[in-house]
Each structure stands twice: as C-alpha cells, then as structure tokens.
Amino acid sequence: MADTICVMVTKDTSASPGAAGSTGGTHRWQALAVCLVAAFMTLLDVSIVNVALPSIRTGLDASEAGLQWILSGYALTFGLVLVPAGRLGDARSRRAVFMTGLAVFTASSAMAGLAPNIGWLVAARLIQGAAGGILNPQVAGFIQQLFQGPERGRAFGAMGAVIGVATAVGPLLGGALISIAGAEDGWRWVFYVNIPVGIVALLLAWKLLPAPIYGDRQGQDPVGMALLGVGVVAVMLPFVQEQQWHGWLKWALVPVGAVLLAAFVAWERRTAAPLVNLSLFRFRSYSLGAAIALLYFAGFTAIFFIFTLYLQNGLHYSALEAGLAITPFALGSGVASAIGGRIVSRFGRPLVAVGLALVLIGLGVAWLAVELHPGREVAWWTALPLLLGGLGSGLVISPNQTITLSEVPYTEGGSAAGVLQTGQRMGTAVGIAAAGAVFFATVSNSGGDWAAAFRHSLIVVLAFVLAAFAAAVYDMVSDARAHAARHARRKHRAPR
Length: 496
Hints:
Oligomer: single chain
CATH topology: Growth Hormone, Chain: A
Largest sheet: none
Structural class: mainly alpha
Strand content: under 5%
Mean pLDDT: 84
Shape: globular
Helix content: over 70%
Radius of gyration: 22 Å
CATH superfamily: MFS general substrate transporter like domains
CATH class: Mainly Alpha
Distance between the termini: 29 Å
Low-confidence stretches: 1-22
C-alpha cells in the first residue's frame, strides 16, 4: 500500500492545467489558512456548547428537551446539507458557496448570542449547523484544486489538525469563556467569539480564495437531494434524540432511512446528472477510507462526550477543569496531524493502522487508570494515555482523508468530501448515542457509579475504533495480495 499511495498522491491524476495555478504559491497557503479558520469555527461549535449547557439552562431557564435540541439540531442540519453544498461548489463556485456559508454562520452566531429564549436559540443553532455544512465541503474541494503531490498531504494534514484540535479544545475554550463572563450569561460569549473572526475571514476569503474553476454545470438533482436529505435525517434523528425521545417508536425511523438511502443509490445510478458520482466507490481508497472515517468518528467524538459527563457530573469538575483534562488529547492530535500529512505519501494506509493501534492502546490505558484511580485525581492519571491516544488520532484523520480523496478528480472534490463528512456525522451520532446509552444505563443501575459508567461506555468506543482498525488491516492485506499477484504475473512473463 505504501508504494501505491505514493503514486496516488505524488502523481495527481485528477489535476488539470491551471487547477493549482489560479492562485499563487504563497497565496495558496494563505487561502488554505482562511478556509481552516472558518472550518475550525464550525467544528468547534460541535463541542464547545457541551460545557455551556449548564450556563444556558441557568440563563434561559431551558428544559432538557430544549438543551438536547441545541446539540442535536446543529448536528442534523450540518449533516443534511453537506453533499448538496459540496456538489453546488463543484458545479458553480466554491468561493461563492464558501463565503455564503461563512456569512450565514457569522450572522447566526450573533443571533444565538442575542437569544432571549430557548426557542430562539434552537432556531439559531439550526441555521448555524446548516451554514457549517455549506462551507465545510468547500475546504476539501479547495485543497483538491490548489494542491498536488506531497503538498496535498500536508494541506490535508493541516485540515486534520484543525478537526482534532477543534473537537478536543472546544470544552477548554468554552469553560474559559464561561469562567470569565459568568455562569448566567457566559454561554453567550461562546457564540459572540465567532463574530469578529467570521468578519475578518470573509474579507480575506474575498481577497485570497481562487476564482471558480467549474466542473459539471448540470442541474442539482432535486430528487437525489430530497432522498438523501430525508434519509440522512431519518437515520440520524433517533440517535441524536436517544436520551430525550423515549420509547421504541423512534427506532422505526432507522429502517425507513435505510430504504430512502437505498432509493437514493438506485436513483443516482439512473439519473443523467447525479448528486454523487457513485463510481468513486469503485476505488478501494475511497470506499474503505469512508468506512474507516465513519467507524473512527463513531468512537473518536464519543470520547469527549462521556469523559466530560464523568468529570462534570460525577466528579463535579468545573467546565474549565473538564476542558483542561481533555487538552492532552488535543495537543497530541494537533502535533501528529501535521506530521501525518507530511509522511502519508511515504507510508500510506499502514500509517492509519498504526494511528488506530495507538488510539486503542491509549484508551485502553485510560480505562485502566480510571479503574485504579477513579477519584478527583483522575485527570492526572489519564493525561499521558490521552496524549498517546491523541497522537494516534492525528495519524488517523488527516492521512485517512488524504488517501480517501487521492483518486478523486478535483472537479468532484467538494461532493466527494461531502459524502465523506456525512458519513463522519452519522458515525458521530451513532457513537455518541451508543456510548451515552451505556453510560446512563450504568449510572442508573449502579446507583451513581460514574467511574463504572465511563469504563463501560469506553468499551463501546474501543469497539468502534477496533472495527476501524480491522478495516485498515483488511486494506493492507488486500493491497499486499494484489502486489504479490502483480509480481507473480511479471515473473511469469519475464523471458527465461
């Protein structure tokens, strides 16, 4: 796999003349920086709100259902628009779509910060999530367009660092803002902080992002959009509402969603202007990479959810203390993502497998640390295991994204990234719901043993990461067999 991915990344089969030349060498990295700042804000808002919920409850006298919709509403609308937005950017103008999403995200952040009641805040979060879903696929599309060869790996490495750090540092930043601004209104600054950053990023985006290089300018496939959108929501809704929507009826939506997604695939195969080019899944790099991403994000994002619950609810850590406890994972992920992006062209999928193995080891040691030292000092005992897990995570996210998109034509980079990120969002919803269900069931059945709840739910996380590791190993074995078969054919044809 190492020599295969080296060829894939170094020899860019999808680039066309001028693809990377629409903005200068230095400006390409400046344009990427603008994209990553915007992506950081949207991904940060997935995790930063978790520690702000007690402050929101106090400030707006919010119900449990309202608080849940602040989280789940953002996730639902984010995942709903990813693929159509990626397709729109590919076919029309990535710069225009990116700037539209960024402008709406900035405005909806102001709307959320000014919210006088919980209904207003939920509506703002729905709009904010959709705006984040609009701009995020454009980032991967710009990377496909602007960078080639090893530089593309480094660019995806920077993107992977943003994903890892934004997810992990959210609780720390949220806790710090609430500590400074106060418990009653501190949550408002979680949203206000986006406004100046968004305005500056908009001005820089207009100046630095390249002019459109149009791909397929056919129609936008409204039937495909409807089938995919309703199917994704039907699958995700029972998981994101798992704790608030009681009863079994919600799970009936999952098979309904599966049928709609199957209908979407059938429609895409027959329509002249598909929303998603399904032939991409013929590439093992794309299909297995998407599966690894889905499974890993199911475990990866659930870590922060259950650890924060354990620290804040079980050990009565403040929001800031809980954020600090998760910081080692963020630091490890940020450092390793940058390194992973630089070396992925040399090592390929084995690098992802090594990263997944480090995550398994780190989380396994964290499980043991909580078993042996479940008290207030647990943050110190888990710091090194989380750092190791973070280092492994950095070797998973950006290298896997680089490999997954390595054979995708740049004209389809946005829609391909949208499919990939939709899978990540669905994995996140399933993972948090599964780990959360085990966590709360253990708390209830054990009479409030929060440490046991964390350990039991961490087993669910480890299972998802182990499944991702198995997929990476399968890819390596398949590649080794293919390489051996090619070598045998060459040897058989060689003159004697």
